[in-house]
Design goal:
The complex is a heterodimer. Chain A has no helices and 11 strands. Chain A is an all-beta fold. In chain A, the strands form 2 sheets. In chain A, strands 2, 4, 5, 6, 9, 10 and 11 form a 7-stranded mixed β-sheet that branches. Chain A has a 4-stranded antiparallel β-sheet with strand order 1-3-8-7, with no helix packed on it. Chain A starts with a strand and ends with a strand. By secondary structure, chain B is mainly β. In chain B, the strands form 3 sheets. In chain B, strands 2, 5, 6, 10, 11 and 12 form a 6-stranded mixed β-sheet that branches. Chain B has a 4-stranded antiparallel β-sheet with strand order 3-9-8-7, with no helix packed on it. A two-stranded antiparallel ribbon of chain B has the order 1-4. In chain B, strand 5 (32-39) and strand 6 form a beta hairpin. The chains are: A mainly beta, B mainly beta. The A-B interface holds A 31, 33, 35, 42-43, 45, 48, 50, 55-56, 58, 88, 90, 92, 94, 97-108, 110 and B 31, 33, 35, 37, 42-47, 50, 52, 91, 95-107.
């Protein structure tokens, strides 16, 4: 059974650009969540999608957005990149529903903004 | 709001010895899940162990066990017979039974000394 796949693994972008990150969940998983990991702030929740609908959103500016497709694959987009957006972005998938019993994480996308 | 606190930024243990990582959390909910995730240098978040709050029995997974004290809101991880491969960053995490958002602690970096 394939795990959670995130692409690309590494990205270097310039301030002001935009970027799109992709996450393919485990087959059969309908919930995809995104987290930002930085040395200073740790792991912070960005948003969660379930059946193509954003179900929950963290405390991030509107420059951070996402979507989920009918096959459960998810993308997150960051517009007008800032240096502070440099981070490891992790995607997690779970089967469904509230009260998840387990989330499976991808290897992350390392974004560097220069 | 839910918070998760790991008060040990770094820990070290001799190979084959036992080490305990601490975690406390704050919540007003009665039904939730607690997790320990391991993040090695590869950055992949790997589930180590899971505890359902409604279960009084402490979870165990081979060399890994937890001490779950619900009243004290404490959730420590014990690693027995430590191995070199256990070296990683360990994160304690909380998720409510009604949500799908993980709240993570700041992590404990575990070094295993040969």
């Amino acid at each position: 059974k394939a795990g959670v796949t995130q692409t690309p693994r590494y990205l270097i972008k310039t301030r002001g650009q935009q970027v799109t990150l992709s996450c393919s969940p485990i087959s059969g998983h309908r919930s995809v969540s995104w987290y930002q990991q930085t040395p200073g702030q740790g792991l912070q929740f960005l948003f969660e999608y379930f059946s193509e609908t954003q179900r929950n959103k963290g405390n991030f500016p509107g420059r951070f957005s996402g979507r989920q497709f009918s096959n459960s694959r998810s993308e997150m987009n960051v517009s007008t990149l800032e240096l502070g957006d440099s981070a490891l972005y992790l995607c997690a998938s779970s089967v469904a529903g509230r009260g998840t019993t387990e989330a499976f994480f991808g290897q992350g996308t390392r974004l560097t903004v220069v | 709001a839910q918070t998760v606190t790991q008060s040990q930024p770094e820990m070290s243990v001799q190979e084959a010895e036992t080490v305990t990582l601490s975690c406390t959390y704050d919540t007003s909910e009665s039904d939730y899940y607690l997790f320990w995730y391991k993040q090695p240098p590869s950055r992949q978040m790997i589930l180590v162990i899971r505890q359902e709050a409604y279960k009084q029995q402490n979870a165990t997974e081979n060399r890994f066990s937890v001490n779950f004290q619900k009243a004290a809101k404490s959730f420590s991880l014990k690693i027995s017979d430590s191995q070199l491969g256990d070296a990683a960053m360990y994160f304690c995490a909380y998720v409510s039974n009604t949500g799908n958002q993980f709240y993570f602690g700041t992590g404990t970096s575990l070094t295993v000394i040969p």
